[in-house]
């Protein structure tokens, strides 16, 4: 594994999920692996779960951690080549990443999409600049279009339910702000790699990018989609087609108990943070598995770190 | 001890003060206790001493530490139940705390009062939400109405003076901003638990809450109060009665050498940060024990952490 | 060594450069030295390289690290004595530093100049307040007028080139903002202490302070200066004479390939961050040694930390 930015970076996704389960069972078994190794966590955007769980994972492996909020701790970076750098951007990503990767053995980076220029976002411009200029492996802490650490934790969470071939439904949910498609893209990608039975339900016009929808069942009728589901995974995302558009007058897409009653006693999942009574009702959230799902973030990150550390030995 | 938020959480306060003294004597004796344990420090408000001393205490015990400034590193939290979360608050405290407490073995939290709604502040609404939703013990890094780590350090500092039954005077002092009553409430609470001889002196209308004033001598004449004192503990606080009000035209409440001359060669204490020549004169501060008092913050925190770590074994 | 703020603090600069080279060769050989020791890094100003490389250096030695951004994590400090502190500054440096130095075994501090009051900047007022009130050694992470960790890394970088008595040229370069003279002053200071052959080239009126120019060759014709150079070290700085003034209409001072062609196949150095195509052309920067120079920051910091740790045993 050269970097961890997508399920396609992973040789054997099923094996990685199993490794995450082992990390959860014996979190400190490999606490020698990280000796003298430093993980750098670079945030262009806010973070709670990723920030904390990845640090915890690194500590479980005996690593040191350096956290840095770009802009707040440092200064703005220039990403375009060939510029005369006379604006507010004090350093080019080329130097910044080359340098940071010398001080760290692994680099994690979080970089959200602008949700304005679809081609730029979907080219993973910033993440790829990091990969290009880093001398060490890059771990995505959520990029413009994918969030693989979340998905790996999601797969572990589903695995733990021990349901044979569960019917998984990814449902669009309402929100007041334009959110990335990253979590949803990534969830679909990992479901497909795990040969899971995955259906996407969303309002018309809110389908994910064709590359992610390919091979996935699509059902615009949310209640129809919920029937017989074993897992409801809710997430808002802004439109891919009408790029970055927020859903209007779609508050009835909330996941509530009435809809959950249509399912096969499905477990409710969400990556968090979640807006209560907008995305999901209190009732549904309070009997969900989102807290354990978040707990699994530590072991997803630990499995990935361990994979890299082992290959360094 | 389930949590550490008040002297009432502590089974034997005197024993805890002794434990802090032992930590100071041999800071690294228990450096194995924190192995594989992570302390999370969550700040809703700025901090210098608490931030640094608690980290140092954790390191002395071999713990890992994760520090997080809510709002700056993450996003705003919703604390009210039953809300439709369509404002600027992206996550409910219920999920945030449940999740953070999975990544950490102990959680410290600093949350100041709003000084607008007295009932809300004195209900310790935010702190109690943390306690309610956390799966691990909560350590107060100063809450709306109490600052027990400061008080424990204060008690250690007083103990080190080896004065038999010292006369302790807590004096109100001037300030330009509305400050919490937390440090003062807490100091009184710990003095009472230690059966100390404690007098509060303040302008009329600046008495602490009745629950804290109960059993404490009150003297509105500052100079009268100072007579024969062995320890002068100065602190500004805004009014409890006229909630959050700042003292006007009360600059003569400054602690200066003339007033100190009325005492029994009293030692001057303050929790810091302190505004020179407003709260206390340069002369008095420069011959005070505030630096050693701040030093004791490390060992107060260490004693509390050690107490929790020991009970986890 | 009592503190590390200038080459003049170092008994044997050449030996320290050699020590940095040894740290690079065997980074973990002294990982026991930092046991139970905590490094505090205090930033009044942003930082990328210094922040990360110094943390890494401390980890290589087995130290713990506490990082604090003053103002963001804490509050503003008062530096003047005798003030009635009724402004926005909540704590005097006297208490803040005395206290911080109790929680840490070594304190690093970054504090930039105001570039308004030359006497104040060149008195190193803030840094000296830290030295005055700290009970532990102070390491400059760049002060108003010097940046010795950068210079030590620069000397190591030059040493690694194994050029006998290289001709070193420090060239002024264009910029859009008023920058400190610190890196340039410090570079000259270390070159002189190493008996290097150092020439400064800059527009008239941009000479460094007389104390640094003394014993250094000065050449206002940039192309003339470049002839036969083995090392071109570029840096912008604002005027010392017309204090803080930015150079106007001086964009032709950029270092480009045409000018580099005048040299003896000189290596290009810069402390970073660098503004491409303003300070230096893409072409020159992309074939430079700035990345390795930045890498050496870790080993410069490690040599200094090791020096202090050894003397504590």
From TrEMBL, chains A, B, C:
Pfam families: OTCace, OTCace_N
Annotated positions binding N(2)-succinyl-L-ornithine: 142, 175, 235, 275
Aspartate/ornithine carbamoyltransferase carbamoyl-P binding domain: residues covered: 2-160
PANTHER family in UniProt: ORNITHINE CARBAMOYLTRANSFERASE, MITOCHONDRIAL (PTHR45753), ORNITHINE TRANSCARBAMYLASE, MITOCHONDRIAL (PTHR45753:SF3)
EC number: 2.1.3.11
Annotated transmembrane regions: none
Metabolic or biological pathway: Amino-acid biosynthesis; L-arginine biosynthesis
Subunit structure: Homotrimer.
Domain Aspartate/ornithine carbamoyltransferase Asp/Orn-binding as annotated: residue spans: 183-306
Keywords: Amino-acid biosynthesis, Arginine biosynthesis, Transferase
Molecular function terms from GO: amino acid binding; ornithine carbamoyltransferase activity
Binding site for carbamoyl phosphate: 47-50, 75, 110, 147-150, 271-272, 297
Superkingdom of origin organism: Bacteria
Function per UniProt: Catalyzes the transfer of the carbamoyl group from carbamoyl phosphate to the delta-amino group of N(2)-succinyl-L-ornithine to produce N(2)-succinyl-L-citrulline. Is essential for arginine biosynthesis.
Keyword Transferase: yes
The keyword Amino-acid biosynthesis is annotated on this UniProt entry: yes
GO biological process: citrulline biosynthetic process; L-arginine biosynthetic process via ornithine
Protein name: N-succinylornithine carbamoyltransferase
Catalytic activity: N(2)-succinyl-L-ornithine + carbamoyl phosphate = N(2)-succinyl-L-citrulline + phosphate + H(+)
């Amino acid at each position: 594994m050269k970097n961890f930015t997508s399920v396609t970076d992973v040789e054997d996704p099923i094996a990685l999920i199993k490794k995450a389960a082992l990390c959860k069972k014996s979190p400190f078994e490999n606490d020698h692996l990280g000796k003298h190794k430093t993980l750098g966590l670079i945030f262009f955007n806010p973070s709670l779960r990723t920030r904390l769980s990845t640090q915890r994972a690194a500590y479980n492996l005996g690593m040191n951690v350096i956290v840095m909020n770009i802009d707040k701790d440092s200064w703005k970076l220039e990403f375009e080549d060939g510029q005369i750098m006379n604006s507010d951007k004090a350093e080019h990503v080329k130097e910044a990443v080359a340098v940071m990767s010398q001080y760290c053995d692994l680099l994690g980076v979080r970089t959200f999409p602008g949700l304005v220029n679809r081609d730029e976002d979907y080219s993973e411009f910033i993440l790829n600049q990091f990969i290009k200029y880093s001398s060490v492996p890059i771990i995505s802490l959520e990029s413009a279009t994918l969030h693989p650490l979340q998905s790996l934790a999601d797969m572990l969470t589903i695995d733990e339910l021990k349901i044979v071939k569960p019917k998984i439904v990814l449902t669009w949910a309402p929100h007041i702000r334009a959110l990335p498609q990253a979590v949803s893209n990534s969830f679909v990608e990992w479901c497909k790699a795990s040969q899971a039975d995955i259906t996407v339900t969303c309002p018309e016009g809110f389908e994910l990018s064709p590359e992610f929808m390919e091979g996935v069942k699509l059902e615009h009728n949310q209640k129809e989609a919920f029937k017989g589901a074993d897992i409801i995974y809710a997430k808002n995302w802004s439109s891919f087609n009408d790029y970055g558009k927020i859903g209007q007058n779609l508050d009835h897409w909330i996941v509530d108990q009435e809809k959950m009653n249509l399912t096969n006693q499905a477990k409710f999942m969400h990556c968090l943070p979640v807006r209560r009574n907008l995305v999901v009702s209190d009732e549904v959230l309070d009997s969900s598995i989102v807290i354990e799902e978040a707990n699994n973030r530590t072991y997803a990150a630990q499995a990935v770190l361990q994979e890299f550390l082992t290959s360094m030995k």
